[in-house]
Amino acid sequence: MAFKDGFLWGGAISANQSEGAYNVDGRGIANVDLCPTGDIRDSVLMGKTKMFDFDENYFYPGKAAIDMYHYYKEDIALFAEMGFNVYRLSIAWSRIFPNGDELEPNEAGLQFYEDVFKECQKYNINPLVTISHFDVPMHLVKEYGSWRNRKMIDFYERLCRVIFKRYKGLVKYWITFNEINMVLEAPFLSSGLFIEEHEDAELVKFTASHHELVASALATKIAHEVDSENMVGCMLASIAPYPRTCDPKDVWKAKQVENQSYFFIDVQVRGEYPAYTLKELERKNIVLPFKEGDRELLKQHTVDFIGFSYYSSSVVSADPTLTDTIGGNLFPSLPNPYLKSSDWGWQIDPLGLRITMNNIYDRYQKPLFIVENGLGAVDVPDESGYVEDDYRISYLSEHMRAMRDAVEYDGVDLLGYTVWGPIDIVSASTGEMKKRYGFIYVDRDNQGKGTLKRSKKKSFEWYKKVIKSNGQDLSM
Asked: What is the C-alpha separation between 164 and 227, in angstroms, rounded?
């Protein structure tokens, strides 16, 4: 059997794409609330267009999302019916500390998540909690400049101390930052960073990165002090860059692109910055804002496991004239003629998952956790809300086979697998509801209209069978 007993099967979502209730029970506004749909979205996500308040000319899908704030009991019951023994979700920072810099937390927010975790406990589902899934209270953005400011470490530490103590015994698995390397690609979405015209964008992003890495190590330290049973992970958005040709220049370009993401995990797993990053920053005249104790903290408090997302691979080239990249993803990629693409242009590459698992495991020798993998597609339901999503089943089964091969034949140590979007939620990259990932259909459209009724897709029963067989039965 490829997967050991107790292998963690489940699904993953984020608070900002599912909960809605953006102004309920004392919750404050966060950066993720202020990402509208439409042509302006990418510019806002990348910190190029300033949107620090709601504008009546735009639609903000995260305000209501799928209202999981009020539907969580129904949704968790459906997850339990599929057989989940793990459920990855995130905490909305601004539910716990509405402004982010308060001395005392918001009890209503704390109680909400306690209720959610107890609901999971009722079904023997382990919560896997992301502390910061791109959320930053907007007060911290406006008042302090978000993660470019070292004071953010103190605010994050306060959040961590509160939640680790409050949820001791309810939560064992934690992730400090979702896709931490995304700060380099989409700084406002990832970290609440708007880049001012007079600023050096690279300096801002690497400064923020350092503060997040120190905060991550501090969170790991506190988690282990509060409960020795806690397991804390980091998380990488993996992009599996392939060289376009066997030209050594293309191969080197792919290595450079890979390193730009891996350096975060190098720090979180090995406890220090890799030489290649230090040399790159030296060439750019960027001085990291190290303070006394940072190096020791990073070295002594490394993570217990490596979480990562995987949706597709990418193709890169050293040739600057090749600019015809495929759309639909925040990571640019040239087309790969050997692969098919999803409705949004993401290249479907199951073997790329096995390659990625091997690369990460060979590099770090730490347990891995695939915390995001899924297919965004246009689902057309019948009158009862049923979707015959064979394309999703095909995508997932092929990736699970690659995952199984990495474990069974390559010896990769894998803790678990959580499908991204077990229920339809708002897309982070496009803000659409039309881009659906779930086993559960939610009646809501791109304009926020619909009944919110939940209904099972064909893939619901298929995933139930997969979990029951511990990944042995992947048949359609």
From this structure: 8
DSSP type of residue 343: T
What single-letter DSSP state applies at residue 162? Answer: H
Query: Rounded to an integer, what distance in angstroms lies between the CA atom of residue 82 and that of residue 459?
Result: 10
- Is it the case that residue 327 has pLDDT exceeding 80? no
Distance CA 21, CA 298 (A): 36
Quick one: 395 exposed, middle or buried, by C-beta within 10 A (0-12, 13-18, 19+)?
buried
CATH number for the domain spanning 392: value is 3.20.20.80
Helix (H) or strand (E) holding 107: helix 107-122
Within-domain flag for 270 = yes
- CA 107 vs. chain centroid, Å, equals 26
Whether the per-residue pLDDT at 452 is higher than 60: the answer is: yes
User: Which residue shows structure tokens 């190096």?
Assistant: 295
pLDDT over 90 at 329, yes or no: no
Confirm whether 40 is domain-assigned. yes
| 339 is a domain residue | yes
Quick check: is 473 in a domain?
Answer: no
- Find the catalytic residue in 372, 383, 398, 461: 372
Model confidence pLDDT, tens digit, residues 214-269:
999 999 999 999 999 999 999 999 988 999 999 999 999 999 999 988 999 999 99
Identity of residue 26: G
Active site residue 74: no
Q: In total, how many domains does the chain have? A: 1
The CA distance from 195 to 44, in Å, is 10
Which range of residues forms the domain containing residue 218? 8-468
- The Cα–Cα gap between 204 and 218 comes to 21
Least reliable range by pLDDT among 47-56, 66-75, 338-347, 348-357: 338-347
Q: Judge whether 226 and 165 are in contact, CB under 8 Å.
A: yes
Please report which confidence band the pLDDT of residue 330 belongs to, taking 50, 70 and 90 as the band edges: low
d(CA 447, CA 114): 31
